[in-house]
Amino acid sequence: MAVVLYHHPLSRAATCVWMLEEVGVEHELRFVDLMAGEHKKPDMISLNPMGKLPILKDGDVVVTETAAIGLYLADRYSSGKLAPAPDDPGRGTYLRWSMFAPAVIEPGLMAKMRGWEYGAAQAGWGDHDSMLIAMESAVSHGFILGDRFSMADIIFGATVRFMLGFGMLEKRPAFTAYVERLEKRPALQRADERGAAICKERGIEQPGG
Ligand SMILES: N[C@@H](CCC(=O)N[C@@H](CS)C(=O)NCC(=O)O)C(=O)O
C-alpha cells in the first residue's frame, strides 16, 4: 500500500487517522510501540530524526509534523474539497488557523500548564488571554471556513479537543460547541473506533477508559 501511517493510538497519529478517514485514501496503519521505545530505533530515526510519531509515508515521500501531514493529504488527495484551492479566498484563513495550532496553541498551553516565564512579545505564541480570544474568533461562527469543513478543522480542532479533554484549555462555550460540531463527523467517529479497537487488541489502557 502506498500510504503508510506509523501509528500509536495514544499519540498525535490518532489525529492523522481522522485525516485519512476524511480524505478517504487507502492506507495502512503500522503500529509503533512507543512504550517499548520503537520510535527511537534506527529505522524510525532514518524517517524522522526527532524520533517522534506521527510519520506518514506516501511512496517515497516522508512527511512528519501532524499539521504538515494534514496539509499534505488535503492538497494531494482532496484539493478543492478539504483544501481550498490556491486561488480560493478561503485559502489564507485555512492556512492561518492550520498553523496557529502547532505554532501558538501547543506551546501556549504548555507554557501555561508548566508556569513558564517568558516574554510574550518575543515568544511566538504570545500571551494566554490574546490566544484564547483569537481561538474564539476562529470557531465561534461554525467551522474555520464557516459552513465549510476543511482540513484546518482537523488540525485546529483535534488540538482543541485534545486540550479540552486533558483540562489544559478553558472550557469556553465557543470551544465546547465547536468540538460538539466536530464529533458529529462520521470520519472522526470511525477514527476513534479504530483507535479504541487497537488499544483493546494490544491491551493498551485508554485514558478515562
Ligand atoms: N510536533 C510534532 C510532535 C510529535 C510528538 O511529540 N509526538 C509524540 C507523540 S504524540 C511522540 O512521538 N513522543 C515520543 C517521544 O518524543 O519520545 C507533531 O505535531 O507531530
Describe the model.
Strand 3 and strand 4 form a beta hairpin. The chain has helices at 13-23, 42-47, 66-77, 91-114, 128-139, 151-165, 173-182, 186-202, and strands at residues 3-7, 28-31, 55-58, 61-64. Helix 1 packs parallel to helix 3, helix 1 crosses helix 8 (186-202) and helix 4 runs parallel beside helix 6. By secondary structure, it is an alpha+beta fold. The protein contains 8 helices and 4 strands; from the N terminus they run E-H-E-H-E-E-H-H-H-H-H-H. The protein has a 4-stranded mixed β-sheet, covered by helices on one side. The mean pLDDT is 97. It has 2 domains: 3-81 and 187-202, Glutaredoxin; 91-185, Up-down Bundle (Glutathione S-transferase Yfyf (Class Pi), Chain A, domain 2), CATH 1.20.1050. Helices cover 51% and strands 8% of the residues. The protein is globular. Glutathione (GSH) binds next to loops.
Topology:
Elements: E1 3-7, H1 13-23, E2 28-31, H2 42-47, E3 55-58, E4 61-64, H3 66-77, H4 91-114, H5 128-139, H6 151-165, H7 173-182, H8 186-202
Parallel strand pairs: 1-2
Antiparallel strand pairs: 1-3, 3-4
The structure holds glutathione.
The site of glutathione has 11 residues, from loops.
Short descriptors:
binds glutathione, Glutathione S-transferase Yfyf (Class Pi), Chain A, domain 2, 209 residues, four-stranded mixed sheet, globular, Glutaredoxin, 51% helix
